[in-house]
Amino acid sequence: MSRPRARDLGIAIGLLPTGKANAVTDVSDIRVGHCTLNRGSGKLSAGRGPIRTGVTVVLPHGRNLYSRPVKGGYHALNGCGGLIGSLQIDEFGLIDTPIGLTNTMGMAAVGEGLTRYTLEQNGLAGTKTDTIIPVVSECDDSYLNDSRGLHVRPEHVFEAIADAGPRVVEGAVGAGTGMVCYDFKGGIGTSSRVVESAAGDHVVGVIVLSNHGVRHELIVSGVPVGRLLKTPDPGREESGSIVTIIATDAPLDARQLGRLARRAGMGLALTGSCAHNGSGDIMISFSTANVRDRHQTQDVVVTEHLLIDREMDGLFRATVDATAEAVLNSLFCSGTMEGRDGHLAPGLPVDATVELLKEYRALS
Predict the structure, then answer these.
(1) Phi, psi of 257, deg, nearest 5
(2) With the CA atoms of 157, 160, 162 and 167 taken in that order, what torsion angle do they form, in degrees rounded to the nearest 10?
């Protein structure tokens, strides 16, 4: 049974309108896919389960990313986490593979899967053209999952890519299967905003892999829901991390995308996050504008149209609000899950949350 998204219940963050699906795929041509690994129960048997993990992929466009990379940037608000490919993004301002999300110790397998996928598309890669550095990030799902079992394999990347489409499934799916957010069940969440500017309308879309925070910190529409809910503290020691991917069709360069990525931290703060010491708070951003084939052009000077900085305020606001709503969607769309050794991640009590928001007059 599907659970409601935040906006279905009247919880609207900010004043900007959403895109048609209120999802990262409202940015044209973006696709998202999942491979979910969820089986077994009871006591942990390393290598056998219980398994609560998976892979999520974000494809910035449906063509060959290696030959037609997108402009990219990133920001590490707190660096207790991993981002394969970050040095190349920093150096060249490009992302040229799908973006993979998974659990911490599955990063190498997902990196191999993305590399094999890109090799299949590009017969000259590593011989006559550049080698491949995939983009992969992670959160730690070991509270629920048999992380020592290394259950994520390269073939799961291919399954996630085959699943990729414009509809984004949220909650305990793909990389979000074993994630816990504010001590409730977390995972995948998404949201989008439409921004008007002098250069025309642009879309900002956000997708998160939420696995951060502790119960008493959770804020929904300004209401300290985590402190007010009468639910027991699960005693979970882990309090990190979150990966946020920000996409836009606005024509931005890598420097500007870095500025956009940094604003996602403000969206996390709207939901109560303080970026704990052990939390990996990683933001990846990209633009689908100004895409060109890097292997076919002979030009040594390239001219591109870019949005000027003073027109970015709307994009900043959109990033903050869409990030906050994406986190809430990851919570609202995830039901209770039991993992290894009886560890329980309860679903956010939706009815009780709505009653609190009504009491504080925080519903739109």
Answers:
(1) -65, -35
(2) -150
- Distance in angstroms (rounded) separating the CA atoms of residues 21 and 10: 16
Dist CA 261 CA 241 (whole Å): 16
Q: Residues 6 or more apart from 36 whose CB is under 8 A from it?
A: 54, 173, 174, 177
For the question of residue 241 being annotated catalytic, the response is: yes
* From 67, 279, 330, 334, active-site residue: 279
**Domain definitions of the chain by residue range:** 16-359
Tokens 């925080």 found at: 362
Query: CA-CA distance, 188 to 208, in Å (whole number)?
Result: 6
pLDDT tens figures, 227-257: 999 887 776 766 689 999 999 999 999 999 9
- Dihedral sign for Cα atoms in the order 218, 221, 222, 225: negative
Classify 270 as helix, strand or coil. helix
- Edge-to-edge strand list for the sheet holding 83-84: 31-39, 51-59, 99-103, 135-139, 83-84
Whether the pLDDT of residue 25 is over 70: the answer is yes
Active-site annotation holder among 281, 285, 287, 334: 281
Look at residue 303 in the predicted model and tell me its pLDDT: 86
Q: Which of 86, 210, 241, 330 is flagged as catalytic?
A: 241
Question: Which of 150, 137, 141, 142 lies closest to 176 in space, CA to CA?
Answer: 141
pLDDT per residue over 325-358, tens digit each?
A: 999 999 999 999 999 999 999 999 999 999 999 9
pTM for the whole structure: 0.97
Q: Which CATH superfamily is domain 16-359 in?
A: L-amino peptidase D-ALA esterase/amidase (3.60.70.12)
Q: 160 with 41: CB under 8 angstroms?
A: no
- Number of H-type helices and E-type strands within the chain: 7, 15
Whole-angstrom Cα distance, residue 362 to residue 120? 51
